[in-house]
Amino acid sequence: MSSAADINRPNVASFARHGALVAAFNVLIALMLSYVTERPLLLQMVYSEAIGLSIWAFIDFGRFAFPRDPRTGWPRGWRGLALTLVGIVFGWLLGISIGDAYCQCSTWELLSYAPRRFAAYVTLTLVVSALISLYFYNHGREQRHRAQLAEAEGEASLSKLTLLQSQLEPHMLFNTLANLRVLIGVDPPRAQLMLDRLIAYLRATLNASRATLHPLSAEFARVDDYVQLMKVRMGERLLPRLELPSELAAQPVPPLLLQPLVENAIKHGLEPNVNGGKLIVSATRDRDQLVLSVRDTGVGLGESSGDGTRFGVQQVRERLVTLYGDKATLELGSAGDAEGGTMATVRVPLYSP
Amino acid sequence: MNASALIAEDEPLLAENLRAELISQWPELRVVASVTNGEAAVERALALRPDVLFLDIRMPGMTGLEAAQALAEDWSDDAPFPLLVFVTAYDQYAVQAFERQAVDYLLKPVTAERLAQCCARLVRTLDERKAAPQAVQQTVDQLRELLAMASVSPAAAATRLDVIQAGVADTVYMVPVDEVIYFEAADKYVRVITANKEHLIRMSLRELLPQLDVQRFWQVHRGTVVQARYVQSAHREESGKVVLTLRGRNEKIVASRLYAHLFKGM
Questions:
Q1: B19 touches chain A (CB under 8 A)
Q2: Which end of chain A is less packed: N or C, by CB atoms within 10 Å?
């Protein structure tokens, strides 16, 4: 984010680089002109630098007076072209004034006694300035393009990493392994079952981004893996119930859509509650909508520690928008009955073949 | 007499396993109680006076650190303070702090080897302590550092409160924080005390704290935060507690031994 802002702000280093490049080019022109016209090199140098740097200053600083296109760093459309032309005219006028003041002569007199030389100077100025401007324009566009590309890549991998981190939360993983280690000693068959659940959970988490949709029964199976892992850890404090009517089992849903909501319910609702509580995950049909709800009887929204919840919910919202646009919704609120706790409800269009 | 231990761990399998492994590695140790949350840990530890306390960090309700704080504040000096061993699955900042403060800790899954090291160290410390009894002070100093670490959470960039909005029936009272003499935790609520009024807000002290200016509002006890300019004088008692006399209120409030260091002459 910051790099895009930086690149559009006037930047001393880039001005210095441009200025130095222009000045160096002016030296070449002066050498060439002095060789061709056989006039003193110093004089040519003063004219050349005065004209070149004036034009450069008009254009390069003038860019910041206009709203600029973030893709190029130049004023948008015709304004960029106009700026270049106006910059060349004014820069040239300022440049020859400086040169004339130095040699105490007048370039305008050339018009009367050497009109062709005058025309040649003007043409040279125009062509060289236009070429340099074009070079800077292309160079700036390329640089910005590269910066934006790198930034977009960075953001994408960061969001992927955050997603993976939120799913493979180390605290959950190490606590699960600690329980597994104990079970291996005291109850090997149960340890094996728990390990199978952990494997299924890990496989689903690592694969989630690859498949676009899977049947609701598969989604409930993944939720069950996670819930059973937590059940080993929390014992009687976690009372889960999964309700999936058989006629909805084949409904296609995005994989692990419910996972963050179930994790929130346990992590922020039930785990902080001394007595734990119920977790109810259910699917129902409401006319042409599939309604998935995750409800806990834990501490409720006010007590939970903001950030973690928000990331999970935001992630679900983003996936819904990507897949269904405005046809899907996610509501998060207090469960409005005596048992308290939190209720998350997802509504997506019902699929009818 | 043999050493005694109390285990506070909310996951039943892990609690039972820690108990079994402790018994096999340290047969003389008596595990006097195993509890599943912080509040129970404090209550049982105060009653049973164990020599060693194994505290899981993430537990429902009070965390292990908060339980240690509560225990240090309420501990009476006639018995040595329990040796603390914190247990955690993954709290990298806490682990760094434990290392710095040389506080014992175990990482889950707990390996037999690591537990043996920990037990050996505990036995040694208990022996040393028998020879030369130590005050609770050293533990208090360690805990103070650990709590300071825990309160600097990166997410705590909350905005400062200017006015406390306290609702009573259909009316909301707007109480400027300048006028608040002290806040006191009352279960899930906080009592807001001014010179002539008292309000109750539905918020825990833990949630309120990040919204207060720490320069002006000093936590003096796990349940009390006082506005420094309303403290008239602080009187140190032999127990290590400091009793505060307030401007504008007749009652006195107590700063626990964890916060007594705040009240020193300049």
A1: no
A2: C
